[in-house]
Amino acid sequence: MRRASDIVYVVAILSASVACLPWPNGEVSSKEQDRVLFQHAISALEHNRLDVANLTLQTLVNTYPDSDYARAASEILQDPQVAKCGSSWNPLPNRCDGSLASAPSRMN
Length: 108
Hints:
The chain is mainly α. The protein has one domain. It contains 5 helices and no strands. Helix 2 runs antiparallel to helix 3 and helix 3 packs across helix 4.
């Protein structure tokens, strides 16, 4: 019984110490969340996931309205193919697939 409690104690100590370690992508601060959302949306566009891109861009515009990325997101949301994917919930996953008429510009 003593051995089992020692194992639980060691696991608890290790778990607590691992929780204090920095994550590999820990360099993303709360000040850069607009950039992260924009990059996620661009990646979704590149993979023809227009529904994901639409939702991510709308989230960016609504959450960070004063951001430069929000202005770029608003322009991308004007694209007819991206806009139609946000008009309503779509049970058919391929309805929003397709290539964009014009590729969005990346912001760095």
